[in-house]
Amino acid sequence: MLTVAPECLGKVLVVQRPDGVAAGRIVEVEAYRGPEDRAAHSFGGRHTARNHSLWCAGGVAYVFLVYGLHWHLNLVTGLEGEPQAVLIRGVEPLLGLELMRQRRGPLRDEHALTSGPGKLARAFGVARDLDGAAFTSETLFLLDGPRLPAKRSARIGVDDAGAWARRPWRYFVAGSPWVSRARTSAAG
DNA sequence: TTAAGGATCTCCT
DNA sequence: GGAGATCCTTAAA
Q1: Length A130 CA → C9 C1' (Å)
Q2: CATH code of domain A4-172
Q3: pLDDT along chain A (188 residues), means of 10
Q4: Exposed, middle or buried by CB within 10 Å (0-12, 13-18, 19+), for A60?
Q5: Ranges of each domain in chain A
Q6: pLDDT for the residue A162
């Protein structure tokens, strides 16, 4: 999974919805590795209705809601019974710009369209009905792209996870304006 | 059935 | 740089 995460950078995420198609190049991801990873939803080996998709064989989507407002899109990468996933945090829009703007509403900063996990999920129309969907379906799939140079840093939003929070399991493309802004400036 | 908390975003200063 | 929004999931009685 730690090898899969950097390989995701540069790939193109495509989501087809009834109201249109959206596509973008992945420029930022985070790796989560349960059940040891305290920051992961699967920490402790908990297999619940919510994170069921995490335990499926790799290649499906794990979609969940945080703070009652924001959806997050993960790519499950483990074997069946091994909860491992890559969280997609930032993409560079390629197709469906108009559609994304519609779904996101008026923005002060053009780059805010997809520069964050909650933002891109909304821009791409990702919601609960995509949870468990295969990444090879017509609705949701990945295209190969040029391998981009990955930089690493600590993950974001997992401060209370102790040493696990400091693991450099966030991979991003340095210099891309579509990378979400880390609260703690990226090391490296 | 109830209570508590969360892998964030946005606006305002 | 700081605080509020908002609803789903989980655990306990």
Answers
A1: 18
A2: 3.10.300.10
A3: 88 96 97 90 92 96 95 96 96 96 90 95 96 96 95 77 75 94 46
A4: buried
A5: 4-172
A6: 60
CB A125 within 8 A of CB A22: yes
Q: What is the pTM of this model?
A: 0.93
Taking the C1' atom of every nucleotide in all shown strands and the CA of A128, the nearest one is C8
- Any idea which nucleotide's C1' is nearest the CA of A64? C8
> Hey, which bits of chain A come out as E strands?
12-17, 20-33, 61-66, 70-76, 84-95, 140-143, 151-153, 170-172
Which nucleotide lies nearest residue A43, CA to C1'? B7
Given a contact cutoff of 8 angstroms between Cβ atoms, the answer to whether A99 and A22 are in contact is yes
Nucleotides of C under 7 A from a protein CB: 5-11
Whether the CB of A137 is less than 7 Å away from nucleic strand C comes out as no
Residue A145 token pair: 């792209």
Instruction: Kindly report which amino acid residue has its CA closest to the C1' atom of nucleotide B11.
Output: A108
Q: Residue A62, CB half-sphere, CA atoms under 13 Å: how many? A: 29
- Identify the pLDDT of residue A187: 36
What pLDDT score does A159 carry?
54
The answer to whether A68 CB sits below 7 Å from nucleic acid chain C is: yes
Using the CB atom, is residue A69 less than 7 Å from strand C?
A: yes
Check residue A52 and give its pLDDT.
Answer: 96
